[in-house]
């Protein structure tokens, strides 16, 4: 099956959960003998290359600065080029991970009669849909023109029904259980890792730093490893905080495996892939009881939830999870939970959807 995957940006320019989701799905398809190709954009000339077995077409991204300054949805300018790239080759299905790309895929679908799909990586609530100009319009066009729009969690699917009256199928993102594995041993000091973008307000990384100070009152040598932004000095500095380059997948997997706990104090998560990646590394997790995070942390045998955005509540959850990390059965329980979200299961679910839609 020839699958066009459409993502507005990709590694190394951006390394967020959406990019990892796209790469994991591509690897799953390749492993089953299918032929995915990624169509993306970047601030440079046309580039066509094969990276770790995945053919990638990087289109030149037309300037979008003026639109962004006026509050428009990002990546609108490259939609015509995405459509042209789809038309330039033959595909059985076009699978977008961003609504503007889904508009291009829907147009391609009308022209070719082959199915277009959107994996909606966020939560389609009213505030989110109104946050950027043209976001609601592009989402509605995707719903109208795509054969299926997929939610990442039951929580996101509920929001589709409540806000847009659409019954979205649910397919969770997958985690590569071979790439994310337990480390030979944990760090010698109690370590908490959080790979979330510290510059994004809804990730609440400053709250995590405040909670660390409370944790260190009981565990003085506890450390917090955070993903290094371009300018770490612009963020809160505190004792016990270390910045690390967590963009590389191997580095990230090693950080998860060596940590005692992985934390994600985010609001409005459509899934929470970083939690599943940490579980695959045998590391217990802590998350805010909001969005889809309670779907991932469904048992206290491998994680803890906290229900108020206060340092004390988060610190209590972290201390509990640090204790949990010392139980000999925790690694196996974490791995068992991660296996429920494996790349294999995700890939099979998407292949079944492609076939059901006629690809």
Briefly, what is this?
The protein is built from 14 helices and 13 strands.
Walkthrough of the structure:
The chain has 359 residues and is of the alpha/beta class. The protein folds into two domains: 2-174 and 342-356, 3-Layer(aba) Sandwich (Rossmann fold); 191-339, Rossmann fold (3-Layer(aba) Sandwich). Helices cover 41% and strands 18% of the residues. The chain is built from 14 helices and 13 strands. The chain has helices at residues 17-31, 65-69, 79-87, 99-112, 126-131, 135-145, 154-164, 205-218, 249-258, 273-280, 293-296, 311-325, 330-339, 343-356, and strands spanning 2-6, 35-42, 47-51, 54-60, 93-96, 116-120, 148-151, 191-194, 223-227, 241-244, 261-264, 285-288, 303-306. It has a seven-stranded mixed beta sheet, with helices on both faces. β1 (2-6), α1 (17-31) and β2 (35-42) form a beta-alpha-beta unit. α1 packs across α14 (343-356) and α8 (205-218) packs across α12 (311-325). It is globular, with a radius of gyration of 20 Å. The termini are close together. The mean pLDDT is 95.
């Amino acid at each position: 099956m020839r699958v066009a995957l459409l993502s507005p940006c990709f590694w190394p320019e951006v390394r967020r959960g959406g990019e990892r989701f796209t790469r994991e799905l591509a690897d799953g398809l390749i492993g089953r003998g299918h032929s995915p190709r990624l169509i993306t954009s970047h601030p440079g000339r046309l580039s066509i290359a094969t990276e770790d077995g995945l053919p990638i077409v990087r289109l030149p991204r037309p300037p979008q600065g003026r639109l962004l300054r006026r509050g428009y949805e990002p990546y609108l300018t490259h939609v015509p080029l995405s459509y042209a790239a789809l038309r330039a080759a033959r595909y059985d299905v076009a699978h977008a991970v961003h609504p503007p790309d889904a508009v291009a895929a829907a147009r391609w679908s009308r022209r070719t009669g082959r199915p277009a799909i959107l994996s909606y990586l966020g939560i389609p609530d009213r505030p989110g849909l109104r946050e950027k100009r043209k976001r609601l319009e592009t989402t509605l066009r995707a719903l109208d023109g795509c054969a299926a729009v997929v939610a990442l969690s039951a929580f996101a699917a509920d929001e589709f029904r409540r806000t847009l009256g659409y019954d979205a199928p649910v397919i969770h993102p997958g985690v590569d259980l071979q790439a994310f594995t337990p480390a030979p041993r944990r760090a010698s000091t109690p370590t908490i890792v959080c790979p979330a973008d510290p510059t994004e307000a809804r990730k609440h990384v400053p709250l995590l730093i405040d909670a660390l100070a409370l944790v260190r009152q009981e565990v003085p040598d506890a450390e917090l490893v955070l993903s290094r932004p371009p300018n770490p000095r612009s963020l809160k500095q505190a004792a016990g905080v270390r910045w690390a380059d967590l963009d590389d997948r191997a580095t990230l997997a090693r950080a998860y495996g060596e940590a005692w706990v992985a934390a994600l104090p985010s609001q409005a998560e459509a899934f929470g892939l970083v939690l599943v990646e940490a579980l695959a590394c045998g590391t217990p997790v802590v998350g805010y009881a909001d969005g889809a995070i309670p779907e991932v942390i469904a048992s206290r045998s491998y994680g803890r939830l906290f229900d108020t955005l206060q340092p004390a509540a988060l610190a209590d959850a972290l201390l509990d999870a640090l204790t949990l990390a010392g139980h000999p059965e925790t690694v196996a329980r974490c791995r068992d939970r991660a296996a429920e979200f494996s790349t294999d299961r995700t890939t099979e679910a998407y292949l079944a959807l492609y076939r059901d839609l006629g690809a």
